[in-house]
Design goal:
The complex is a heterodimer. Chain A is an alpha+beta fold. Chain A has seven helices and four strands, in the order H-H-H-H-E-H-H-E-E-E-H. Chain A has a four-stranded mixed beta sheet, covered by helices on one side. In chain A, helix 1 crosses helix 2, helix 1 packs across helix 3 and helix 3 crosses helix 4. The termini of chain A are far apart. Chain B starts with 5 loop residues before the first strand and ends with a helix. By secondary structure, chain B is an alpha/beta fold. Chain B folds into four domains: about 110 residues, Glutaredoxin; about 210 residues, NADH-ubiquinone oxidoreductase 51kDa subunit (Rossmann fold); about 80 residues, Ubiquitin-like (UB roll) (Roll), CATH 3.10.20.600; about 100 residues, de novo design (two linked rop proteins) (Up-down Bundle), CATH 1.20.1440. The chains are: A alpha+beta, B alpha/beta. At the A-B interface, helix 2, helix 4 and helix 5 of A face helix 1, strand 10 and helix 17 of B. The structure holds flavin mononucleotide and FE2/S2 (inorganic) cluster. FE2/S2 (inorganic) cluster binds next to helix 5 of chain A.
Chain lengths: ~160, ~550
């Protein structure tokens, strides 16, 4: 699929700025992708092409990295990424019912994004906060000790952000 | 220096933060000021106390009174009663399951009194943002001492201590340092592995947040011993708070000349850089971690060569876990004999465990190696909540083994757990009560592996997927004896032929549960029923 020149141009400036912050050395690729993704929680094709150009790394390599790690996404995602832990300690303290409550409250299934592009529901492996299981992480913030009743409260906290 | 008659230590560890410790702290500062006590009482944010289940937790010194589950509305009473009038607020004290009367000081609580704190010696006692408080508790003394020794003497001291890696594999730390020190090459690297992705593990994060300088000091000593001038801490991308705290601690250490050029005028120079991952469990494996640090996909490398000879950018590299490194300053300061006096002969020292699942005192503990599982679950962990019965303990995280009640007296150390058919691993300890189904939770473990398999080698990529499907078939009551045989054969292939320990250990939870809970498999396969009633309910919903 050909990609529009405007998209490439608009990604170029931002990507160059970010790359110059760290340097074009390949070791900084992960950090650079984190920063490039920060604006809309996803890495567009145009952005990946510009990263490859700016760092002089084959696009296939950049794409390979962007799809290897679960914190990156090459598909559009919502403003808030709700990552629900499905590892065992959360599983046995009620993660399933929390998952269903999020799905119901937002009217989407796990892996989907709401129509208004506000929320995305994703599974995640253990977040390292099992002391307060079941837990979810929404963007940088973690919420613990969740029950189905608390889901609405958590969503409202995002809305007011 | 100012003097305060009372210090209030409020836990700011992640778990307490999610329970609202920040607003409690803010309310406390405000109330103390309002009552005009701000010249007499100081509020300090400190690292995790470990009793996360009862958070937010605070301890008031000099009395060492321990309050649990404090909410902002309690603050006025604490200031008025305790700080002003010296009267303890009974209702906020810790109460064990059977106790009616609260326990006052934290040292009296079983949860703490049964522990032995070496790695966590400062957690909950000092302000982790203050290097001065760390130094006041003998901090950086060990580094000064190590720099007056020969590197080989430092390595010998660590060898003599018998310290074994706390990241999962249990490899002797002194030996690993020796290999790296002897490897050919001028440029060598030290990496602190803070990827911590094993489900049920959160110790490294709380160590780094509660006492960051113990890890920095341990790293500086390790680097001196192996001859590295550059160190890295590789964090998982999700650990934002830890990264901020550590960045601050590194700046302080540099400002004090404890990192940088010519440390303590010894001619030794060393600095540390932070690297951040992006979400992949396999990156905790040391060679995958190295690939990730180089900006590549985090796929494990074939071993040998080991990182000690060919590591980061092809240079000799030593990778150590956070907890391993946090043990080093105490070993150098107090000696190998002291360290060997703790724990077991083959496995000296302590181990930090994270208690999760169906247990009253979920949280972080540190105990001597060799303590029994029963003591951890019942004496320290406070037993199983809601009057339910113990069913299973999984030690070592998702790639660890699942132990039944009959094995509650197994000593918790690397060798004893391996003999019992499980693993110590990272120190994750998940307790499950009798309301859960073994098949259902094994399916959850396998879901983890099929998601986290990096896809590089076939036995692991295909094996984790097929194992999941087979166990799913059992949970749907559609499996036969033939499938069990298939699971065994598949498991053997994965153990023998996978490239890294992820695929090699993925069948472990299936095999240990087949061994220790055969009746549960039989019920699903032969009798078509789930004794806990979990699988049946799940299939009705689906
Ligand atoms: C799949 C996999 C994940 C691992 N994850 C971690 C981890 O999160 N943290 C860690 O310290 N070691 C982890 N390890 C072990 C490391 O490969 C390595 O043995 C360890 O960091 C060495 O440090 P130590 O000798 O101090 O234990 C993992 C190993 C495997 C196979
Ligand atoms: S298992 Fe969910 S946060 Fe660890």
């Amino acid at each position: 699929m050909a990609i529009a020149k405007e998209q490439l141009d608009s990604a170029e400036k931002r990507v160059l700025q970010i790359v110059s912050r760290y340097g074009a050395n390949e070791e900084h690729l992960l950090q650079i992708l984190h920063d490039v993704q920060a604006d809309d929680n996803s890495l567009s094709e145009a952005e990946l092409i510009q990263v490859a150009r700016a760092m002089d790394i084959p696009l296939s390599r950049v794409y390979g990295v962007a799809t290897f790690y679960s914190m990156y996404s090459v598909r559009p995602r919502g403003k808030f990424i709700i990552r629900i832990c499905e590892s065992a300690p959360c599983h046995i303290t009620g993660a399933q019912s929390v998952i269903r409550a999020f799905e119901q409250a937002l009217g989407i299934k796990m892996g989907e994004t709401t129509k208004d592009r506000k929320f995305t529901l994703e599974y995640t492996s253990c977040l390292g906060v099992c002391g307060v299981a079941p837990a979810v992480m929404i963007n940088d913030r973690v919420y613990g000790n969740l029950t189905p009743d608390k889901v609405q409260e958590v969503l409202s906290a995002c809305e007011n952000d | 220096m100012e003097f305060f008659r009372s210090h209030v230590l409020v836990c700011s560890g992640v778990n307490c933060s999610f329970r609202g410790s920040r607003s409690v702290r803010a309310a406390l500062v405000e109330e103390i000021r309002a009552q005009g006590l701000d010249k007499e009482v100081r509020v300090i944010e400190t690292g995790c106390f470990g009793l996360c289940e009862a958070g937010p937790v605070m301890v008031i010194y000099p009395e060492a009174v321990h309050y649990c589950r404090v909410v902002p509305d309690d603050v006025k009473e604490i200031v008025e009663e305790h700080l002003r009038k010296g009267r303890i607020v009974d209702r906020l004290l810790y109460k064990g399951e059977a106790q009616v009367k609260g326990v006052q000081t934290w040292r009296q609580i079983d949860f703490y009194s049964r522990q032995k704190r070496v790695v966590l010696r400062n957690c909950g006692l000092i302000d982790p943002d203050s290097i001065d408080e760390y130094i006041a508790r003998e901090g950086y003394e060990a580094l000064g001492r190590a720099l007056r020794m020969q590197p080989m003497e430092v390595i010998q001291a660590v060898k003599d201590s018998g310290l074994r890696g706390r990241g999962g594999a249990g490899f002797p730390t002194g030996l690993k340092w020796d290999f790296t020190a002897r490897a050919a090459g001028d440029q060598k690297y030290l990496i602190c592995n803070a990827d911590e992705g094993e489900p049920g593990t959160f110790k490294d994060r709380l160590i780094l947040e509660g006492d960051p300088h113990s890890v920095i000091e341990g790293m500086a000593i390790a680097a001196y011993a192996i001859g590295a001038s550059k160190g890295f801490i590789y964090f998982r991308g999700e650990y934002k708070l830890s990264i901020d705290r550590l960045t601050h601690a590194l700046e302080q250490a540099r400002a004090y000349g404890l990192l940088g050029k010519n440390i303590f005028d010894s001619g030794f120079s060393f600095d540390i850089e932070i690297k951040v991952g992006a979400g992949a469990y396999v990156c905790g494996e040391e060679t995958a971690l190295i690939n990730s640090m180089e900006g590549k996909r985090g796929e494990p490398r074939f071993k040998p060569p080991y990182p000690a000879s060919v590591g980061l950018w092809g240079k000799p590299t030593c990778v150590n876990n956070v907890e391993t490194l946090a043990n080093i300053p105490s070993i150098i300061r107090q000696g190998a004999d002291w360290f060997r006096s703790i724990g077991t002969a083959k496995c000296p020292g302590t181990k930090v465990f994270t208690l999760t699942g169906n247990i009253n005192n979920a949280g972080l503990i540190e105990v001597p190696m060799g303590i029994t599982l029963r003591e951890v679950v019942y004496d320290i962990g406070g037993g199983i909540p809601h009057g339910r019965a113990f069913k299973m303990a999984q030690t070592g995280g998702t790639s660890g083994g699942c132990l039944p009640e009959a094995l509650l007296d197994v000593p918790m150390d690397i060798d004893s757990l391996a003999t019992a058919g499980s693993a110590l691993g990272s120190g994750a300890l998940m307790i499950m009560d009798d309301s859960h189904c073994i098949i259902d939770v094994v399916k959850c473990f396998l879901q983890f592996f099929r998601h986290e398999s990096c896809g590089q080698c076939t036995p692991c990529r295909e094996g984790t997927q097929r194992l999941y499907e087979l166990v799913d078939k059992i949970s749907r009551m559609e499996a036969t004896e033939k499938d069990v045989e298939l699971i065994r054969r598949l498991a053997r292939t994965m153990e023998d032929a996978s490239l890294c320990a992820l695929g090699q250990t993925a069948p472990f939870p299936v095999l240990t549960t087949m061994r220790f809970f055969p009746e549960e498999y039989e019920a699903h396969i032969v009798h078509g029923m789930c004794p806990a009633g979990v699988c049946a309910a799940a299939s009705q919903i689906a």
